Amino acid sequence: MSERVPVSMIVNGEEVERFVEPRTTLGDFLRTDLELTGTHLGCEMGVCGACLVLVNGKAVHSCLMLAVAAEGESIQTVEGLSESKEIADIQRAFHNRNALQCGFCTPGVLVTAHEILKQEGPLSREEIRDGLSGNYCRCTGYEAIVDAIEAVLQERAAKGDSAELAA
Amino acid sequence: MSAALHNADRPNSYIGRSVTRPNALRLLAGKGRYVTDIKLPRMLHAAFLRSPYAHANITSIDISEAKALKGVHLVATGEDLAKLCKPWVGTLDHFRGMKSAPQLPLAVGKVVWAGQAIVAVVAETRAIAEDALNLIQVEFEELEPVADIDLAREPDATRIYPELGDNVAFKLTVESGDVAAAFAKADGEIEATIISGRHTAVTMEPRAIVADYNAPEEALTVYHATQTPYQFQDLFSRLYGIRESRVRVIAPDIGGSFGMKLHVYHEDMSVVGLSMLCGRPVKYVADRLESFVSDIHARDHRVKASIAFDKEGTILGMKVDDVTAIGPFSTAPRTSVVEGNQVVRLIGAPYRFRDYRADLSVVFQNKVQTSQYRAVGHPVACLVTESMMDRVAQQLGMDPFEIRRRNIVTQDMYPYTSPAGYKFERLSHEACLEKLHKLMDYDRLRAEQKTLREKGIHRGIGIGMFVEITNPSPAFYGVGGARISSQDGAVLKVTPAGEVQCLISVGEHGQGTETIIGQIVAEHLGVERELVRVITGDTDVTPQGGANWACRGAGIGGETALQASKKLKANILSVAAAILQSKPELLDLRNGNIVDAAEGTERLPLSEVARISYYRSDTLPPGTSPQLTAAHHYSPQGYPFAFTNGVQACHVEVDVETGFTKILNVWVVEDCGRIINPMLVEEQVRGGVVQGLGAAFFEECRYSETGQLENGSLADYLVPMACEMPDIKIDHVETPTEDTELGAKGCGEAGTAAASAAALNAVNDAIAPFGASVSQVPMTPQRLLTALGHGSSSSQKR
Predict the structure, then answer these.
(1) Which of B575, B598, B577, B581 is nearest to B498 (CA)?
(2) Burial of A120 by CB count in 10 Å (0-12 exposed, 13-18 middle, 19+ buried)?
(3) Which of A31, A136, A143 sits opposite B728 (nearest CB)?
(4) What's the CA gap between B103 and B266, in Å, rounded?
C-alpha cells in the first residue's frame, strides 16, 4: 500500500476531489470512490470494452488508465451520458431492438456506439461491426446491436435531412 | 354466430408479441445492480491464494506476515473453514457406480488443479487482500499431474484420489437393438473420431458473491450472482448448519450465466465461512484470470463413431465411444457426468435408426472442474451425428438435405422413443428442414458455390439438425437425490390501486424472463402489461422453485404464471360478483375492468374491487372473503422432458492458403412450441448460435502436459467478436406441447446445440475438393492448414 495522493477531475460535469492510492485505476475510482457503478470491469486488461468511458470526449478503457492520470480531465460515464440525454436515441433504439440481454457489457457498448455515430457519412453494417469489435458481448451475438446502431444512423440522417429541408 | 376471436384481436393479447423488456431500461441507464456493484456497511473483501501446481502435496503454509499486514482482518486456511463447512460430494444416485472425492472450501493437504484456492485473506479493500497474498509462504511437494485422458486410464497411472481406485468417475453403456447385426447387413460403414475442445462460459460479469452472516439471529444473507438461489439456500444451510428459513439468497441483476452460475464453487462456499468468522459482510468477485482457472469448463470430448448404412442412404445403426475429460472430481450438485450422459443419449436423436450402442467414460484430470454449460452435451452429439450423416452423404454422392429427409423421424411416428430412451411427444423435423431449404435459397447457393469454385473461391454449406432437452421433470436431477427443484411457484397479488405484482421463482438474467412472465400474467388475468410488475430472485420474497437451468423458464415458469393468473382471476371475479350481485361465470376481466362476459360491457374497474376489498370490506355482503393474492406451484407432468427441435445451416468461405474461415451466413429454423415473445426467442437463438460458432472456430481451454492452462486470459482465449460474426436469419415452426395449457418449450440452448456441427459440415464441404476434412473443433487456421496438407500432421491434435 502506498500514500494516498490528491486527484481532481470533472466527472459527468461535476468537479470531484478525492485522495487515492496511485495504483487505483480510473475504473476502480469511478466504481468505488464515486459509486458510479454503471461502468463495468470485465477483464481489467483493455480487451472486453465493458469499462469504456469518455475522457475529454474520447473512448478510453478506464481499467487501463490510472485515476491520477485523469487529473484535470473531463470524464463522462454512462450515468452522465444518460442524464444529459446525449445518447437518449441510442438507448431507445437499443431498447426497441433488444440490443442487450444481461446488460453488463452495455455501458461500454453505448460509449462505442456514441463514438461510431459521431462519424460523418453513412456506415455499412460491416463498418459498424468493425467499430464494435472492441466490445465483447456474450449474450446477443451482436446482430441486434448492429441493427440498433443502424436504426439510429437512419433516424439521425432523416432528422438531418428534414432539418436541411426546413432551413 | 360470431367466429372465435383470433388471439391477437382479443384485449390484453400479449402472448406471441415482440414486446420490449421493461427491466432493460435500467440496464441501459447504467442503473443495473449486479452483485459486483453491491456495497454493504462495514463490508470486507476476500482474495484467494491459488495453487501454481496441477497436482501437489502442501507441506507447509506460513500466514504470519500476511496476518500482520495493516488492513487485514482474517487469513483463513483450509483447516479453518473445514471446522465450519461440511464436505460436499458431486455424485447422484441415478448415475449408477459414479464416484467422486469429497470437497471442502479450501485445499487441505493437497491441491488437485492449478488455480485451486488454498488460503483466503479478508481485508479492508481487495487491493490490501491481494497485497497480503504475496506475503503468504506455501511449500509444495509436486506430484505427477493427470492431464491426458488415455494416460489417466493406464493401469499404472497416478491416481488423483488413490482411495477411489482409479481415475474413472463414471462409465455407461447405452445399447438398443442389435447393432452388430445392423453393421453386418450394411452396404457401407464409416468410422471417424470427432473431437470437441474444452470451453468455458466467459460471462461478462465474473462470478460474484457477498455473504453477510448475522450472528445474533444465526441468519445468513447472500447476494449471489447465481441462476439458482433456492439451490444455494439449501446448500448454504446444510453445509454450514444454518436453519434453512434463515438463509436468504438474493440474485439481483446477473451479468450472464449460461449454466456456469449454478455450480458449487470453492470460493463461494469459502466466503460464507469467512463472513461467519469475521462477523461482517465479505465480498468476493473473481477477476478474469481467476475466472479462467475456477469457473467450470465444459465439453472436452473425444468420440470415436461408426455409422452403418445401405446404398439408398438409410442409416442402419451407430456405435460410439465417448471419452470425456472432467476435473479432479465431479462438480456438485449436478455432477460432471451429465454432459457425457447427454452426448451418448442425444447422438442420432433426429433420425429413425434403431440399432445403437454407446460407451461413455468420464475421466478425472488435474484440470479445472467441468460441468453444465449452455446446451450441455448437445453440441458434441450434434457434431458427431451431423458430421457422420454428411460423411455418408458424401460417400453416396447424395445431397445433405436428401440424406436427412430419408432418415428423420416423421410425423406419423409420434409419440416416439429414441434408441437411447428419450420420449418425444412431437417434433417437426420435416417442416423445419423444408423451411430451412427455402429460407436459405439452397439451390441458388449450390449453383453459386459451383461458379465460385471455378474462380478459386471455396465456399461451403453445412447443415446441422438438433433435438433439445427442455422443461425437465424430476427425472433430471430429483430422482438422483439432488435437492434441485423441477417445479416453480408464483404468488400473484392485486395492489389496492388495482395493479398486479407477480413474485415468481424463475429468474431474470437478460433472457427476458420477467418480460414473458408479465406478458402471460397480463393476458391471462386481463390487464394491461404496464400494470404487472414481475419480481424475481430472492428466497425471502419469491416462492420456492427450480429457477433457471435446462431451458425451463418459459415452459415451466410460464405455465406456473398462467395457472396462478387463472386462480387470481377467479378470486377477483368472485369478489366482483358479490359486489355486483352477479355470478362469477357471467363476468370477465378485460383491460383491468370487470365486464359482462357475454356483451363486454364495463361494470367495474379492478381498482374499485381492490379498494373495496382492502379498505371497505364492511360494505361487502356477509361471508364474502376477498382473496386478492393467489399462489400456485406447477411441476411438469406427462413427458419427462419437453423436447424441441430445429435445423441450422452455415455458409462459409475458407481461404485455403491461410486457413482462415469467413462465416458468411447462418440460418436457423427452430420449434420451441408456443412462442411467447418472438423477438426474445430470436435473440436467444442468435446469442446461442454465436456461442456455438465460438466453439467451432475460436474457443478452447488449452492445457499443457503438466496441467497448466496456457491461454487463461481474455486476450488469449478467443471469444467471437462483432466483426467475425454474420447476420443470422431465423424462422419458426410452432409445435406446442400438449402437456401444458401454455404449450411453451425452451429455446435458450437451441442456437448453441447445432451451430458448431453446421459450421464443421460447412468447412468440410468447402475443402472437400481438396480431399480434405476436419473432425475437430475449434477449427483453427492451423488445423485447417494441416487438414489441407500444408502443415505437419503432428500439430493436428493441438
Answers:
(1) B575
(2) exposed
(3) A143
(4) 8
In angstroms, the Cα distances linking A12 to A55, A76, B289 are 10, 5, 31
The confidence score (pLDDT) of residue A2 equals 74
The DSSP secondary-structure symbol of B412 reads G
B23 contacts B31 by C-beta, under 8 angstroms = no
Residue written as grid cell 430412451: B421
What's the distance, CA B680 to chain centroid?
A: 16
Q: Longest Cα pair distance anywhere in chain A, in angstroms? A: 62
The DSSP code sequence of B32-75 is: --BGGG---TT-EEEEEEE-SSSSEEEEEEE-HHHHHSTTEEEE
Buried b (16+ CB within 10 A) or exposed e, B213-251: beeeeeebbbbbbbbbbbbbbbbbbebbebeeeebbbbb
CB contact under 8 A, B30 and A78: yes
Joined together, the cell numbers standing for residue B380 give: 458434441
Q: Name the residue in chain B with its Cα closest to that of A24.
A: B127
Considering CB atoms only, which of A39, A50, A143 is closest to B686? A143
The cell numbers describing B51, all together, are 495453487
- Answer yes or no: do A100 and B27 touch at CB < 8 A: yes
Q: For residue B81, give the C-alpha cell.
A: 473453514
- Report CA Rg, chain A: 17
For A107, the closest chain B residue by CA position comes to B30
**Are the Cβ atoms of B725 and A141 closer than 8 angstroms?**
yes
Residues 54-113 of A with CB under 8 A from B: 77-79, 82, 91, 94-96, 98, 100-107, 110
Q: Write the ipTM.
A: 0.97
Whether the pLDDT of residue B4 is over 50: the answer is no
Radius of gyration from C-alpha coordinates of chain B: 28
Nearest to A102 among B131, B256, B714 (CB): B256
Residue linked to cell 446461442: B688
H helix or E strand, kind and range, residue B535: strand B532-536
Q: What is the reported pLDDT for B792?
A: 54
What is the per-residue burial (b if ≥16 Cβ within 10 Å, else e) of B7-17?
A: eeeebbebbeb
C-alpha–C-alpha distance, residues B153 and B164, integer Å: 13
pLDDT score of B304: 98
Number of H helices, E strands in chain A: 6, 5
Residues of A94-112 as b/e, b for ≥16 C-beta within 10 angstroms? bbbbbbbbbbbbbbbbbbb
User: Which residues, 6 or more positions from B425, have their beta carbon under 8 angstroms from its beta carbon?
Assistant: B414, B415, B638, B639, B642, B643, B737, B738, B739
Contact B233, B485 (CB under 8 A): no
- Residue of B367, B366, B369, B368 whose CA lies nearest to B146: B366
Region of residue B165 (left: phi > 0; alpha: psi -120 to 50; beta: else) = left
- Residues 6+ away with beta carbon under 8 Å from B10: none
pLDDT at res. B797: 42
With CA atoms as reference, the chain B residue closest to A102 would be B510
CA distance, residue B69 to nearest chain A CA (Å): 10
| pLDDT average, residue stretch A30-56 | 98
Rounded to the nearest angstrom, the minimum Cα separation between A157 and chain B is 23
Enumerate the residues of chain B whose CB falls inside 8 A of the CB of residue A52: none
Cell numbers that stand for B430 in this block: 420435416
DSSP E strand boundaries for chain A:
5-11, 14-20, 52-55, 58-61, 74-76
pLDDT at B472 over 70: yes
Shortest CA distance from B686: residue in chain A: A141
Residue A66 main-chain phi, psi, to 5 deg: -80, 150
**Which secondary-structure segment (H or E) carries B589?**
strand B587-590
| Least CB–CB distance from B255: residue in A36, A98, A102 | A102
End-to-end, the C-alpha distance of chain A in Å comes to 61
